[in-house]
Amino acid sequence: MQHMSHIKNKLQEGKYDEAARVFFQLIENDPDEPLHYINFANLLLELNQLEQAKHFYEAALEKDSKVATATYGIGQYYYKKSHFDKAANYFQKAISQGLEDSDVFYMLGLCFVQQNQQKLAIPYLQRAVELNESIDYLFQYGLALAQSQYLSEAKRVLEKVINKDKEHADALYNLGIIAIHENNEKVAIKFLNRTISLQEDHLLAKKAIKLLEIDGTV
Questions:
Q1: How far is CA 151 from the centre of its chain?
Q2: From residue 157, how far is each of 68, 100, 108, 146 by CA, in Å?
Q3: pLDDT (tens digit, 0 to 9) for every residue of the chain, 218 residues total?
Q4: CA distance 212 to 188
Q5: Sequence spans of domains, the chain
Q6: Hey, do 1-99 and 101-154 end up sharing a CATH topology, with the first three levels equal?
Q7: Which CATH number describes the domain made up of 101-154?
Q8: Which one of 63, 114, 115, 141 is most buried, by most CB atoms within 10 A?
Q9: Burial class of 138 by CB neighbour count within 10 A (0 to 12, 13 to 18, 19+)
Q10: Which candidate, 157, 117, 156, places its Cα nearest to that of 135?
Q11: CATH 1.25.40.10 fits domain 1-99
Q12: In which element (H, E) is residue 47 found?
């Protein structure tokens, strides 16, 4: 781990030759260990050196074709390149290789969200939340539920987001929209006004309030 921290510092400083020398020393000492390639690829990916990262993930898979974290890394590469169908294939393969991690399920769910296939995203986002109830995971899961018209389930999940972060403007906005669908205009106005108080330029919340005013609700 100390070696990887040193390599990361060199990469951040733009000293790629020095970083590479440290990395290749690790490889020379243990050339068949795929983890060295994966760790280096992860650092490159973090620094947005996408093509180089992909090269080292592939090198790790040459050492062990079943190493799931390298497969997941290539999925991240394709996601960052906006090739969401290819990314999904790699994330699914990583899961089939035994990777039981909240991140891989979350990223697979996001691949379907990016392709406007929210219903397909739901089970993967749900699994991500089961493994890690982070705010981001909960919000994306709740949003996918809402966009798929599973409103009562979406409401329950988005309320969890608010319990964790009372100033999550987008969660408040979506709870307001759900309240409109439930014909509970007073609750909708409360959520929408809270949204705007937190984010004055939230145009969707302002538009929703204006539509309620036109309808004579406010």
A1: 22
A2: 30, 22, 19, 10
A3: 556 676 677 767 777 777 777 777 777 788 788 988 888 888 889 888 899 999 999 999 999 999 999 999 999 999 999 999 999 999 999 999 999 999 999 999 999 999 999 999 999 999 999 999 999 999 999 999 999 999 999 999 999 999 999 999 999 999 999 999 999 999 999 999 999 999 999 999 999 999 888 765 54
A4: 9
A5: 1-99, 101-154, 166-218
A6: yes
A7: 1.25.40
A8: 141
A9: buried
A10: 157
A11: yes
A12: none
Closest CA to 205 of 172, 173, 171, 168: 173
Locate tokens 């440290």: which residue? 22
Length of the chain: 218
CB atoms within 10 A of CB 6: 14
CB 61 within 8 A of CB 71: yes
Question: Is the distance from CB of 77 to CB of 50 less than 8 angstroms?
Answer: yes
Helix (H, G, I), strand (E, B) or coil at 50: helix
Residues 6+ apart with CB under 8 A from 61: 34, 67, 70, 71, 74
DSSP letters, 57-119, are HHHHHHH-TT-HHHHHHHHHHHHHTT-HHHHHHHHHHHHHTT---HHHHHHHHHHHHHTT-HH
